[in-house]
Amino acid sequence: MNPLLWPEYSVLLGVLACLAAVMALGTKRSAEYPVSIVALVASAVFTVHGWSGHQSPVALYGQTVIIDNFSVAVDGLVILAAAASILLGWNERRSGTDFPALVLLAALGMMVLGAANSFLVLFLGIELLSLPLYILAASPGTSASGEAGLKYLLLGAFSSGILLFGLALLYGGSGTMIFTAIGPAHTIAPLVAAGSALTLVGLIFKLGVVPFHMWVPDVYEGSSMPVAHFMAFGTKVGAAAILMRFLFFGFYLSPGVWGPLIGYLGVLTMIVGNLMALPQNDLKRLLAYSGIGNAGYLLIGLASHNVTGAEAMLFYLLPYGFAVMGAFAVVTMVAGERSSISVKDLAGLSSRSPALSAFFVVAMLSLAGIPLTGGFVGKFYLLQAALFANQPGLAVGLVLATLVGMGAYLRPLLASFGHPAQSLEPIVWPWGGALVLAVATLGTIGLGVYPAPIVQIVSHSANFFWLH
Known about the structure:
This protein is mainly α and about 475 residues long. The protein has a domain at about 255-468.
């Protein structure tokens, strides 16, 4: 066992331990939840231990896997997303005993994507991420969850087929499966162009980029709250990581070919996602369209094709993740035994639970990009990257999309300060949800007030010096 891969080994051992706990103790006891948290804590310890601001990349298994500061940073984000989802699902009766093992398995796929340097590992990570999510989407067992799982399975399988066909063309046109070995002097241009286009389609489907976004709100709506949270945060991390690996490592010499396409898709995704979020009444659908808009923000860092853009893209995943954690924690607590709630159900939240309402305000303001929150700092770095790349169109699109998004996020905030139509029961604070909410709120405010430590970590993680 290579010691550099202990974060991944810990998660894999956690999956096996969860399965063993279910088989040994049955379904009436929930030992798999603490076991999964222990596995994630162990993985986090190894991740922190393996971090070094000046660590040189290490290639493993014939250069198919690269362990560097970038992969370590991705591991940390994935661990945060998985831990938050398991804590939210701990007191969720609809989350079965298989929930922790499936979350860990999907998290392992996301971590694999962060270290991938070959077509084979890319596809392995995508499938390892996707297959557990298909099951999790349908896991509540309702008609809505069954429809969500089936829709996600069919569209996901279709996108995987496109991705695999693209990778086959890339291999045929370049003669190699290694990202860093792809060179324009030894490639068949038509095959590489077609393969790159198909591969990008398969990858941006996972990110929920327009026009490959229609599955996102339906799947979120039918899934349970913890699963929808994991898709909103964790899947974004995995998809963004592999896009950066694939384009910045494999096609860094041809940004003029894919850069404009990514930029146009980013602006379109930002605007469409935020516009579609405006009329939504179901909060899970609202957060789904918010996730689509935020996928567009991430593409701004990719399209900038500079070091600042890479750092901004990696940095933005953390404040977005904190905001999503806070929003889903509040929605989960307010919903109680219900599978979802509407904006109207937030009426009177400020009087029912002033503390919960304050936490919800912080999460929504961060998603809207209001100053003194992590979301504002993240959007500012993306705007800076677009301007440094001399692409004012991206900057204008980001600002316009942010202004449109404010309307979508202010609607639930205004509803929470309204008067309820009837007397409502007190809101129960499960300890797992309360812990997630506390971490999310402290992280959101901390990044908004003093982002320097995270900026320094990101600068060492995404310092792809070969970018202009």
